Amino acid sequence: MRIVIVTGMSGAGKSSALKMLEDMGYFCVDNLPIQLMPKFAEMLTAPDTEINQVALGIDIRSGQALEGIEEQLMRMDAQGIRYEILFLDARDNVLVKRYKETRRQHPLGGVGRVDIGIAKERERIAFLKIRATYILDTSMMLIRELKLELEKIFIEGKAFKNLYISVMSFGFKNGIPQDADLVFDVRFLPNPYYIDELKEKTGNDLEVQEYVLHNERAQFFLEKLKEMMDFLLPNYILEGKNQLIVAIGCTGGKHRSVTLANALYQFLVKKESYGVRIEHRDIGKDAIIKAQ
Q1: What is the pLDDT of residue 202?
Q2: 106: Cβ–Cβ under 8 A, 6 or more apart, which residues?
Q3: 207 half-sphere exposure, CB direction, 13 A CA radius
Q4: Which of 60, 193, 182, 195 is nearest to 124 (CA)?
């Protein structure tokens, strides 16, 4: 029997995660009364049950009863009932934006400000995050990316280290990404923009990739970047970091930065223990400007 408790911040994707787990064959129950958790889990572990995968949705809607979940989890521990906790999180500014887009009120915000409700909720469920088996920061995730991460954990059984990495290319002329944790400047490399046959292509095209990576300095930089990632990632995990945004920039965000971001992404995705996504923020902006 596999029991997964799905919890986290309101607006971080708990409902979506439960639907995805249901599609994966899990018997899902949302907002089960806290006091019933041990009894429900005990029933499910009975020898004659046909259910072998269960996901329980628990969140701030449980009200004051949420504070009693620690006691219920301890009862389950005492009964030898094994469970995992999936905690979905997102940055405060992302949660505020999501609430504004859906025009919903935060469960703890009432008719007041959403950010106040988020702060209250984060404080009240902090103990669940500490106990979490898996922590997924969905701030930068698309729905399909969340699905892929859940499949890695709950279907493929891959090792998971609670770190989701976003590799982003950008152009300095359009500004440095405000949410970037690490920023690397590759404007020291020769610019394909000044090569006529490469000017209209991007770092997603093989010709541009060969031009950029054929340079000895680019190869040296890439190897040092990989070494830095190998050093930093385990240490970020030890510090409890769940989301890392690595931004690589060139002048326009179309050639050099895209090439190096792609190369870093291919290096990281092979590690499998981390969730990894790639985004080319400014790759099409020149084309949009010209069209205007």
Answers
A1: 95
A2: 10, 11, 99, 114, 117, 118, 121
A3: 10
A4: 60
CA distance 269 to 284: 24
Q: Is there a contact between 12 and 139 (Cβ–Cβ < 8 Å)?
A: no
Enumerate residues 6+ apart whose C-beta is below 8 A from 107: 10, 60, 61, 117, 121
Mean pLDDT of 176-180: 92
Q: What are the residue boundaries of the structural domains of the chain, listed by start?
A: 2-154, 164-291
> Which one-letter DSSP state was computed for residue 191?
P
Element (H, E) at 170: strand 164-171
Helix (H, G, I), strand (E, B) or coil at 101: helix
User: How much of the chain, in percent, has pLDDT values that exceed 90?
Assistant: 49
Query: Tens of pLDDT along 40-51?
Result: 877 777 777 778
Q: What is the DSSP letter of 273?
A: S
| Residue type at 154 in one-letter notation | F
Q: Which CATH architecture has domain 2-154?
A: 3-Layer(aba) Sandwich (3.40)
Sheet with 84-89, edge to edge strand ranges: 27-30, 53-57, 2-8, 84-89, 134-137
pLDDT of amino acid 110: 62
Cα–Cα distance measured from residue 245 to residue 166, given in angstroms and rounded to the nearest whole number: 5
Taking the C-alpha atoms of residue 54 and residue 42, their distance in angstroms, rounded to an integer, is: 12
Question: What's the number of CA atoms in the CB half-sphere (13 Å) around residue 243?
Answer: 13
What is the C-alpha separation between 54 and 85, in angstroms, rounded?
A: 12
Tell me if 27 sits within 8 A of 2, measured CB to CB: no
The pLDDT tens digits for 92-111 are 989 988 888 877 777 776 65
Tell if the pTM clears 0.85, that is, is over it: no
Residue 104, both tokens = 């919903």
Token pair for residue 242? Answer: 């769940």
| Beta-sheet strand order (sheet of 164-171) | 182-185, 243-250, 164-171, 275-280
